[in-house]
Amino acid sequence: MRFGGWKQAIFVIMLIVVLWPFKSNAAPEWEVWVTDQAGMPARNVVVREAYTNYSAEFHGHTEDQLSDKNGYVKFSAKAIRSPLVVRMIVAAMNVMGGAHASFGPHSFLFAFGNGVGSDGKSWDGDPPHMTSHLVLCSTLPCSSNTKTQ
Questions:
Q1: Helix H or strand E segment including 4
Q2: Cβ neighbours of residue 70 under 8 Å, at least 6 residues apart?
Q3: Which DSSP helix (H) or strand (E) runs through 89?
Q4: Whole-prediction pTM value?
Q5: Of 29, 33, 93, 147, whose CB has the highest number of CB atoms within 10 Å?
Q6: Residue 81, domain member (yes or no)
């Protein structure tokens, strides 16, 4: 009987380990300044952050913020909670994606509004804090425009 008690205890511990949701980073704290091509702050422009942890969840998330009078936006760091069993299923599904499989945290941001947009910036798990400058232009990609910084 005592030996059976140990088996049950080990089973319960393993079950807890597999089902307990633990925390993972999904996006950094991100400070963003948005300007026009002349370097002037762009106010009331939508800055969108899209993020997911491809190793821990089935779907992504988005957050939109409007730039302030200085063209500034700050996104807080994002974390998700996911149990080991879900992570194993997500990893198995990603492996079946072949060459197009993605793993780990990924975040992407860009600005848009009033007929203009910006090139995007991305993050792949490190560092925990990002600072970016987005330049608005009327023709994308902005990097092909000669006035873009």
A1: helix 2-19
A2: 33, 41, 43
A3: helix 84-95
A4: 0.79
A5: 33
A6: yes
Enclosing domain of residue 75: 22-144
| Cα–Cα distance for residue pair 149/32, rounded to 1 Å | 15
In a domain, 13, yes or no: no
Total residues found in the chain within this entry: 149
The CA-atom distances, in angstroms, between 80 and each of 43, 51, 59, 60 are 31, 11, 11, 11
Whole-angstrom Cα distance, residue 101 to residue 88? 14
